[in-house]
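Bit of a strange request maybe. I'm writing a small parser for structure token strings and I need a real example to test against, not something I typed by hand. Could someone generate the tokens for this chain?
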Amino acid sequence: MSVDAATGPRDARFNLAAIQEAIAAQIPDRECIVFRDRRLTWRAFTDRTRRLANYLRGRELGCRVERAALRNWESGQDHLGLYLHNGNEYLEGMLGAYKARVAPFNVNYRYIEDELLYLLDNAEATALVYHARFAPTLANILPRLSRLTTLLQVADESGNALLPGAVDYEHALAGADSACPDVPWSPDDLYILYTGGTTGMPKGVLWRQEDIFFGALGGHIPGGDRVRSVEALAEQAKSGSLRTLPAPPFMHGAAHWAAFNTLHQGGTVVVQSQPDRLDAADVWDTIARERINLLCIVGDAFGRPLLDELDRRPRTLPEFRFILSGGAILTPALKESLLRHLPHIMLIDGFGASETGGHGQQLTTAGQKASSGSFRMNDATLVLKPDLSGPVAPGSAEQGWLARVGHVPLGYYRDPQRTAQTFPVLDGTRYAVPGDHATVAPDGAITVLGRGSVSINTGGEKVYPEEVEQALKTHPLVYDAVVVGTPSERWGQQVNAIVQLRDGAEVAPDALRAFAAQRIARYKLPKEIFFVDQVQRSPSGKADYRWAKAHALAALETAPA
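Reply from user aminoacidic:
Good idea to test on real output. This should exercise your parser:
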């Protein structure tokens, strides 16, 4: 693709850098990103991402081997980690890296030193953009990361000094060229998303940028039609007005997917004032002040605190229209409570995964009976038989593997074995099969049962934690719950629940089991219920099943015989 240094790409294909440049050329003066006192127009955002790209290129970072010469689990690009809270720098880091043909990846800022070392080493990071508050943790592992030679430190309230060899982020941008980088952007350039590691070690999912664009980042315009060209997308963006607040950390796919979908419609991404924690009052105040139309959250872990704040101080929010939950579904009871406060909005449960992109949605509005688990999926989604021999027949009640075809990832970085397992090639077609069990109703609706890696086999019956969690969280005194299996001499595995009650609430385990028994079969009921002050979740709101299992095992060991 040829590039003009003054005006940007002339032959833009489905590459994320090219898409951003094309849209910015159409709406240069519209607000692009709002964060605290920063209100960046599309022109300003483009300038900053170009400068970051040119700084990285000045450090001799970029693409070293083109895709055609690589296997699916390999990368020919330098990798830049984003070790940041939400802010304009996170999205700048992604787009600036893409414009340099460097592949950015997400870093969990909750990681302790050993976890951080594992991630940066596994990703073979050569560059890192990080908030100053994380400098002390990073300093202790830098001597063991010989590849990591480019450090950009973003100043924050911590006031921490620059690490040795690091450069201040704003200083780097100010000294870099603002021209559009003269590099051959390609739809084969990588988008990398590391999984959360809540059920095992994090894995880097490798996508071609064209595939992730159509898989999750706005490749289908509202209504379902496929985007025909970058030029058509940019023209459509001229009429865009969506204003979105992605509340979860951008390091979680659901949050930056919502951001990119908004940007690809020519909209505005707004970041709450307190991105380092979920401050429900701050989120609702930002929605009111910035005239937000869409809020992105992750399940009840975000929804319950937001609902509590509405109970404390109701808002009307006439311009607010949608709540999108990605990464975890909302319980029916929570949906009904939110719609009582905001009857004019639509609740959207989006179903997707790092390994598949978006699959489908469930929509709920006031007056409908709220439910969960059954989704209307897109045409690229299907359920394969347990032996992968073909699709499950609608209405057969057969449990199979949820799968996606078409625009799917290449594989897991540096892991040929898991790449072959999760992204099998069947009769010449590559599928994404991340491990979710599902059934297909006679009308084609797909019910997702849960991830096989955390399912519990008790007495020969398979129990999916999500179903038990939903039943428990329906109880009015339960604030949160996570369900895990532990070894059992009698049952093989037994079901255990770790439950957080509402402040000041008390409920007996037997009473909680009796309540859940009205909603699920008795063999699914937790044999043990352990109450905790707070259920531990990832910053994205997803259940931390490793923590839950360790807690259950420790509690069982100390429980009286």
